[in-house]
Specification:
Blueprint: E1 6-17, E2 20-31, E3 36-37, H1 42-45, E4 65-69, E5 79-82, E6 88-95, H2 100-111, H3 120-126, H4 131-143, E7 148-152, E8 157-163, H5 164-171, E9 175-180, E10 183-188, E11 192-195, E12 202-206, E13 216-217, E14 220-221, E15 229-231, E16 237-239, H6 258-261, E17 270-280, H7 286-296, E18 304-307, H8 320-334, E19 337-345, H9 350-362, E20 367-370, E21 372-373, H10 382-397, E22 401-405, E23 432-442, E24 445-454, E25 461-467, H11 476-479, E26 482-485, E27 488-491, E28 498-505, E29 511-519, H12 521-537, H13 546-558, E30 568-569, E31 594-595, H14 597-607
Parallel strand pairs: 17-19, 17-20, 18-19, 20-22, 22-23, 23-27
Antiparallel strand pairs: 1-2, 3-7, 4-11, 5-9, 6-8, 6-12, 7-8, 9-10, 13-21, 14-29, 15-16, 23-24, 25-26, 28-29, 30-31
Organism: Dyella choica
Domain Peptidase S53: 252-607
Cofactor: Ca(2+)
Length: 608
C-alpha cells in the first residue's frame, strides 16, 4: 500500500513585529517524493513572510502588485461558470532563472560536444534561484492559505495545493470552470497579479489556464487486430508462430519481437542504466501489472521506483494504462535496467508534468520518457513555453535527453487556428520529438524487420513559435524556418502494437486484469527511450545528441563515405493528411524514420 502523499506537522514560530510578540502556527506538508522538498528550518521560516515583510532598501509599497498574465476572454460559445470559493486548485509557481542566455549557449555547446556537461553545483552557482528566494514564494503562498506546498530540489518550482479563494487572495483573480469545444479546465477571469516585492523572483504562475494547457495521453487501444492472434509462451498472448509462414505482415507483437525488429538485440542489455518515466496519478497497482506482464514472457523484473514529486490524489487511476504501456515498452527495448524511475504527476496539466520532469532532471536521470502532450502547440501560452524551455536548457546542459511525443490526432488535430499542428512539449527544440509509424515484419518472421509507413494519426509539422534549431540547418529546405517535428518515429499503430496487461476495479470493488493491445505515440516514445538506454550502455556518452543524429541522417541519405548507411529505417510511405512521407529522405511527416539500434550505436561511436 502506498502511503498518503503528505503528512502534516506544525511548527510554532515566535515573531516580533512592530514591538509585539506573536505566536504563529505554520502547517507544513512533508513530501514523500524524490526531487521535491517541503521541509524548511525554523530559521528559514522566520526570515520573512512575503506579504508582510519588506526587503531592506526596497521602497515598493508592501501591498502593491504587478500584472503577470492577462485574463482569459470568454467566447460566446463557451460554457463558463465561476468556481466556488472552496473549489480545489493547484498552482505551480516558476521562479526566474539567472543568466538565461548564457545557460542556453552552454546547452548548445554540450549538445554539439564542444564542452562537458554542467554539474549540479555549476548550475546552482550561476543559474538557479536560491533557496531563500524559493522560501519567499513559499511563505507568500502559505500566508494566502495554500497548505500543501512543495519546493523542487533546484528551487525552480514551488507547487501549492489550495482553493479558488486562496488563488483570489494571492493572485487577485477569480477562476472559471470553462469548457471550450474539446478543451475543459480552469481559466482565470481576471488578470493574474503578483506582489511587486516578488517580481524579481517569480517568472510565471501556472495552473490557472489549464483548459488550454492540458496534456493528453498518446496511448491508443487496438480496435481490431489483423492476422491470426493467439497465445504463445507461458500463457502470454502474441502472434501465432515464430517459424514458417506468419499470419500477417502488420502484426500485433509480443515484447520479445521488438528488440530484433529494431536491431537492439545486437546490443547488450542496459543493466547499468536508469530510465525515467513520467506518469500521472495513483500508481499503487503499476508494479503488480508490470510483474504480471514480465513473468508471463519470462522477463527478469526491473525494479520500479515510483515517486510523487508534488503529491497525488489516492484512487486516481485514470492514467494507469498509460503508465503500464510506458513501463512495459521501456522494459521491452532496454533488455534490462538498473531500475525504472517513475515520476507521477497529480494531473496531466502541462505545468504538473513540468514539475515531474523537473524532479527527474534534478535526480540526474540521463533518459526521460514523456507520453503526455497538448494536441496543439499553437494553443500554448508563451509563459508556459518559457518555463519548459529554461528547465530543458538545464537538462541539456547536464547531458540529459528527454523523449517527448508529438501526439495522436493526425495532420489536422482541430486546433483553434484550424492549421496543421504538432504537440507540446514535443515541439520544443530541446527534446527528441517522437512520432509513430506502422511496422511491417517479413513474411516468414514476426521478429524480422521489413519496412515502415507513417501511422496516419501521428502528428507532425512545424512548431508554432520555435525557430528552426541549428541542428536542422542541413534540412532547412524541408524543415522551413521553424522547428520541424518529429525527429524520429517508432511503431505506434495499435494494429502493430504491443501486448500489455491492464487492470481496474469492477463495480464490486474487485481488481481484475486483462490482456490488451496498445499503440500510439505513447508506445513510440518509450520504445525509443529504452533503445537509447542500450546505446548508453554500449559506451555512447549521455549527451543531448540531436546534432549527431542529424549528421548521421545526412550521411545516410547522401551516401557519404564512412558514415552509417543503415542507421535509420527511412519510411517508405504514408500520410497524416497534412504531410506525406517522401521515401529515402528526411521529411516533415516522419523525420529520419526509426532506429536500427545496432548500426546506430556504431555510427554514433564513429561520430565521436
Amino acid at each position: 500500500m502506498t502511503p498518503a502523499p503528505w503528512l502534516a506537522f506544525t511548527l510554532h514560530i515566535i515573531q516580533s513585529r512592530e514591538g509585539k510578540t506573536m505566536m504563529r502556527t505554520i502547517v507544513l506538508s512533508r513530501g514523500l517524493a524524490m526531487g521535491f522538498s517541503v521541509l524548511a528550518s525554523a530559521t528559514a521560516m522566520t526570515t520573512a513572510f512575503a506579504t508582510q515583510t519588506q526587503p531592506a532598501g526596497d521602497t515598493t509599497p508592501i501591498n502593491s502588485s504587478v500584472p503577470l498574465a492577462k485574463s482569459v476572454a470568454i467566447q460566446a460559445s463557451d460554457q463558463a461558470t465561476l468556481m466556488s470559493a472552496n473549489a480545489p486548485v493547484r498552482v505551480n509557481v516558476v521562479l526566474k532563472m539567472h543568466n538565461q542566455s548564457e545557460l542556453k549557449q552552454i546547452a548548445e555547446q554540450v549538445r554539439t560536444r564542444a564542452r562537458s556537461p554542467l554539474t549540479d553545483n555549476d548550475l546552482a552557482a550561476r543559474y538557479l534561484p536560491s533557496h531563500v528566494d524559493a522560501m519567499r514564494v513559499y511563505n507568500f503562498l502559505h500566508a494566502n492559505g495554500f497548505n500543501q506546498i512543495y519546493l523542487s530540489k533546484d528551487n525552480m518550482i514551488v507547487t501549492a495545493w489550495g482553493t479558488a479563494a486562496n488563488v483570489q487572495s494571492a493572485f487577485k483573480t477569480q477562476l472559471y470552470s470553462l469548457r471550450r469545444d474539446k478543451q475543459a479546465g480552469v481559466a482565470n477571469a481576471d488578470p493574474v497579479s503578483i506582489p511587486a516585492a516578488l517580481s524579481d523572483v517569480i517568472g510565471a504562475v501556472h495552473g490557472l489556464r489549464s483548459f488550454q494547457e492540458r496534456g493528453v495521453s498518446g496511448a491508443k487501444v487496438a480496435a481490431t487486430t489483423q492476422g491470426n492472434v493467439t497465445w504463445k509462451g507461458k500463457g502470454a498472448p502474441g502472434t501465432q508462430s515464430t517459424t514458417g509462414v506468419v499470419a500477417c505482415r502488420e502484426c500485433v507483437h509480443a515484447p520479445t519481437d521488438f528488440p530484433a525488429l529494431y536491431g537492439a538485440s545486437q546490443l547488450a542489455p542496459a543493466n547499468a542504466q536508469v530510465v525515467a518515466v513520467i506518469g500521472v496519478g495513483d500508481q499503487r497497482n503499476t508494479n503488480y501489472l508490470y510483474q504480471t506482464w514480465a513473468s508471463n514472457y519470462g522477463y527478469g523484473f526491473i525494479p520500479l521506483d515510483v515517486s510523487y514529486p508534488t503529491g497525488y490524489t489516492p484512487g486516481d487511476y485514470e492514467a494507469q494504462t498509460e503508465a503500464v504501456l510506458d513501463v512495459d515498452a521501456v522494459a521491452t527495448m532496454s533488455g534490462g535496467l538498473q531500475k525504472i524511475a517513475f515520476y507521477s504527476a497529480p494531473s496531466t496539466n502541462l505545468d504538473d508534468e513540468l514539475a515531474a520532469v523537473t524532479a527527474a532532471i534534478n535526480d540526474n536521470r540521463s533518459t526521460i520518457s514523456l507520453s503526455y502532450a497538448a494536441t496543439c502547440d499553437s494553443d500554448i501560452g508563451q509563459d508556459l513555453r518559457n518555463s519548459w524551455d529554461q528547465e530543458l536548457w538545464a537538462a541539456v546542459a547536464k547531458g540529459i535527453t528527454v523523449f517527448a511525443i508529438t501526439q495522436d490526432r493526425g495532420g489536422y488535430p482541430g486546433c483553434s487556428n484550424n492549421q496543421s499542428a504538432t504537440g507540446f512539449p514535443g515541439s520544443s527544440p530541446y527534446v527528441v520529438s517522437v512520432g509513430a509509424s506502422t511496422l511491417y515484419n517479413t513474411a516468414d518472421s514476426y521478429s524480422t524487420y521489413d519496412h515502415e509507413t507513417l501511422w496516419p494519426w501521428s502528428e507532425s509539422g512545424p512548431a508554432a513559435t520555435e525557430p528552426r534549431p541549428y541542428y536542422q540547418d542541413g534540412v532547412a529546405n524541408i524543415a522551413g524556418s521553424r522547428r520541424s517535428t518529429p525527429d524520429f518515429v517508432m511503431d505506434g499503430d495499435p494494429n502493430s502494437g504491443l501486448w500489455i496487461v491492464t487492470g481496474g476495479y469492477n463495480s464490486s470493488g474487485t481488481y481484475q486484469t486483462t490482456w490488451a493491445v496498445y499503440g500510439g505515440t505513447s508506445l513510440a516514445a518509450p520504445l525509443l527511450a529504452g533503445t537509447y538506454a542500450r546505446l548508453l550502455q554500449s559506451g555512447i556518452p549521455p549527451y543531448f545528441w540531436q546534432q549527431t543524429f542529424y549528421d548521421i541522417g545526412a550521411g545516410q541519405v547522401n551516401h557519404t563515405s564512412g558514415d552509417c548507411l543503415t542507421c535509420y529505417n527511412l519510411l517508405t510511405g504514408g500520410s497524416n493528411g497534412a504531410y506525406s512521407v517522401t521515401p529515402g529522405q528526411f521529411n516533415r511527416a516522419s523525420g529520419w524514420g526509426s532506429w536500427n539500434a545496432g548500426a546506430l550505436a556504431t555510427g554514433m561511436q564513429f561520430q565521436r
